[in-house]
Structure formats: structure tokens, C-alpha cells
Amino acid sequence: MKTKKEEYSKLVKKASPPSTKIKDFIWAFMVGGLICVIGELLFELYLYLGLFEKQVKMAVPVTLIFIAALLTGLKIFDKIAKHAGAGTLVPITGFANAVVSPAIEFKKEGWVLGLGAKMFTIAGPVIVYGTVASVIYGIVYYVTKLF
Questions:
Q1: In a domain, 14, yes or no
Q2: SS3 per-residue string spanning 32-66
Q3: Over the stretch 49-106, which tens digit does the pLDDT of each residue have?
Q4: Range(s) of the domain holding residue 42
């Protein structure tokens, strides 16, 4: 029995939940903004504690990564991400979650074959692409400066 495209479209529309794009955009904006505010507060805190600006610029991302990894391990990050969507994925916290989540999932398979092998399943291609892109950019930059 064949269904016409219009009939199929009506069935899909009836079965699909209503779109909540505006609500999703607001949540993503608010949570992503909150992560940035936390980053700024950490920046100011580290400066207040006497770190040099160069050290602070390294300490803030490391702290955010640590917090995201900890929240992932405690199964809190996924609950936040469920509502915030891209608000948690875009900042560096999303990268930390992408590394930690597969590692936690496969830790029962052992340190090497589970945790070590699966840790970079999602983040690995991002790291490789970023490294290769930066090398190519560096070569192009170097060559253009020669002339």
C-alpha cells in the first residue's frame, strides 16, 4: 500500500512534537552566556589572587574544562545540556564533555581498551583537524611573509 507524499506529510506533522525553537534559543543563549560570565568571574578572581594575565589566560580554560569534566562525571552536565543544547556545546565546556563522556561510558572495558581508546572518539577528529589546519595556516603565513 503506497502513501502519497501529502498524506505522509500530514502523518509526520501530526506525530511530531511542536517546535520549541524560540525556547531552545533562549536556553542556549542564557546557559552559554552564564558559562562566559563564570569565565569572566574566574578571570577577575585569578587576577585578584595575584596571577599574571598570561597565567590567568591559561588558568581560566583549564578551570572551565575541569568543572565541565567533573559535572560530566557526576552526570549533571548532561542534564544541563538537555535543556541548554548548543549553549553547553559551543564553549570549551562542550569539548571537555565530549572527551569525558565516552571515557566514562567505556571505563568498564579497562584503562587501555576502554578509557584510553574511547576518550577521543568524538574529540579526536576535532583535535586532528585543528592541528592540521593550524599547521597549514602556519605554512601559508610563513610563505606569504617571505614575499
A1: no
A2: HHHHHHHHHHHHHHHHHCCCCHHHHHHHHHHHHHH
A3: 999 999 999 999 999 989 998 998 898 988 888 888 888 876 678 777 777 777 776 6
A4: 21-146
